[in-house]
Specification:
- This protein is of the alpha+beta class.
- The protein has three domains: 117 residues, FAS1 domain (Roll), CATH 2.30.180; 162 residues, FAS1 domain (Roll), CATH 2.30.180; 144 residues, Jelly Rolls, CATH 2.60.120.260.
- The chain has 13 helices and 30 strands.
- Strands 2-1-7-6-5-4-3 form a seven-stranded mixed beta sheet. Strands 19, 22, 24, 25, 26 and 28 form a six-stranded antiparallel beta sheet that branches.
- It starts with a helix and ends with a strand.
């Protein structure tokens, strides 16, 4: 019994001693942690002799002050050895140095144990970096010291510098090949006056219009970037093809007859536009995942012959391939067009005396786009017409088809298609629309002489009676004869 009491006394003493030791170690750990978190990211960089060059460039670029702030950052600091090879032109140019240093800093905190295996991280200079957690690399640079947390973020030491990459637009303009394509895209640039950005100096007493300081409010813009793909934008990934001059010429000659206008200059402009508009693609396709066909933003299939790739380059917002051949098929470039009866923009207009309550845009589950047009009991004995206008129609010969389904009344109806304007039209023979017939009907061929606008009329036959020969139209199809 006495032995048991002595044992309990010693055990209690041991536990209390152990708890006291653990408490001391925890307090020591907490104190160290608190001290670290009171530091900002600039302090461990300044005190690490292996980061002295980076510390110098931080100060020279002004980013040292940023890293003292309370915002959260991640810094990927290259070692002195990694910075030995930096171009002195960068070091001696304040703007280039700021761009370079800014490529090693991002907002928010990124750790090597992040749940995402790969992240595209925006640096404070606007460029994007690929952070691969699985290999602990960023843009191919390995992390040699990781996850050094401080009060305003986390520091990683890396073994290579992170050179800012040009975006696709910048890379295009640095190339010494593809001059025709580059020259044309740059020719789409223009200056735009934005009164919201201009400095107003007064008001015109005669008109009351504002007067602006000369030279203010001028904004650079580019039609290609606005209407095709903004390959300058850092936030979205793209894949871009640059054709060598010979390849550009081949594609140009292949389609130039379809973009003939009354002017040589506008023909050249339109043809060039229709070559380059299909060379930009949404998303990143690296050499490892590049398919044999890409589909442009305008639905054109562009074959990718990997043997025709002269060079490739990973930009900050995508991938650029210089190619000496594209070989886009004409049938993919000059495509079939379908003009819906109800039309996405609605028919341009109807006969002057039409009665709007008799014009129906009907839902039909088996119709193209699930809708068609019906004009019924229109009250025009001389015939009713519906006019459609198409824009940007390539020159060439087309086969025309019409689909219309009559599913009301008892009699068949007859209608015809005319192409032209009010003064001169080419009219196809009238077609009879039997009750409940779902098949499209061939109308004939028509040649468009010049690229541009095409006007079409669907016309009912002039008849008498209560039905007055209605118009029904699911769609008109134009199939190019190539």
């Amino acid at each position: 019994m006495a032995y048991r009491k002595i044992y309990l006394i010693f055990l209690t003493a041991f536990v209390l001693t152990a708890l006291s030791a653990c408490e001391d170690k925890w307090e020591e750990h907490t104190a160290l942690q608190d001290a670290v978190l009171k530091e900002n990211l600039l302090e461990p960089i300044n005190t690490n002799p292996n980061l002295s060059r980076f510390a110098e460039y931080l100060k020279k670029s002004g980013y040292d002050e940023l890293l003292k702030s309370s915002k959260l950052f991640t810094v990927w600091a290259p070692t002195n050895e990694a910075l030995v090879a930096i171009d002195q032109d960068v070091v001696n140019d304040p703007e280039k140095l700021r761009q370079f240093v800014g490529n090693h800093i991002s907002y928010q905190q990124y750790y090597t144990y992040s749940p995402n295996p790969s992240l595209r991280i925006k640096a404070i200079n606007g460029k994007y970096l690929v952070w691969d957690r699985s290999t602990e690399t960023i843009e191919g640079a390995s992390v040699v010291e990781a996850n050094m947390q401080r009060g305003n973020g986390v520091l990683h030491v890396i073994n290579k510098t992170l050179e800012p990459k040009p975006n696709t637009w910048e890379y295009l303009n640095s190339l010494t090949v593809g001059e025709r394509q580059k020259e044309f895209i740059n020719s789409q640039s223009f200056d735009f006056f934005d009164p919201n950005l201009a400095e107003q100096t007064g008001v015109d007493p005669a008109t009351g219009a504002p007067v602006y300081k000369e030279g203010t409010g001028i904004v650079w813009r580019n039609t290609y970037l606005e209407k095709v793909r903004n390959i300058m934008h850092e936030d979205s990934l793209n894949t871009f093809i640059v054709l060598t001059d010979n390849a550009f010429e081949q594609e140009y000659n292949k389609i130039s007859n379809f973009f003939v206008t009354t002017s040589e200059d506008s023909t050249r402009e339109l043809t060039s536009w229709n070559v380059v508009k299909d060379l930009a693609f949404r998303g990143l396709y690296t050499p490892e995942n590049l398919p044999d066909t890409l589909v442009s933003l305008f639905g054109v299939k562009v074959p990718i012959d990997k043997s025709a790739i002269v060079s490739s380059f990973r930009t900050s917002n995508g991938m650029v391939y210089v190619m000496n051949k594209a070989d886009v098929r004409i049938k993919d470039k000059i495509q079939t067009r379908i003009i819906e009866g109800e039309s996405a923009i609605r028919p341009r207009d109807f006969s002057t005396d039409q009665r709007n309550d008799r014009i129906h845009y009907r839902y039909r589950s088996n119709a193209s786009n699930n809708h068609d047009l019906r004009v019924y009991d229109h009250g025009q004995n001389s015939g009713m017409w519906v006019r459609y206008q198409l824009y940007n129609v390539p020159a060439g010969t087309y086969k025309f088809y019409m689909k219309a389904v009559k599913d009301f009344g008892t009699a068949d109806l007859t209608q015809r298609l005319a192409i032209g304007d009010f003064t001169q039209t080419t009219t196809f023979p009238a077609v009879t629309i039997p009750m409940y017939q779902e098949e499209e009907q061939y109308l004939g061929e028509y040649t468009v002489d010049k690229y541009g606008k095409l006007t079409m009329f669907v016309i009912s036959n002039p008849v008498s009676g209560s039905d007055l020969n209605p118009i029904v139209l699911d769609y008109i199809k134009m199939v190019p004869v190539l």
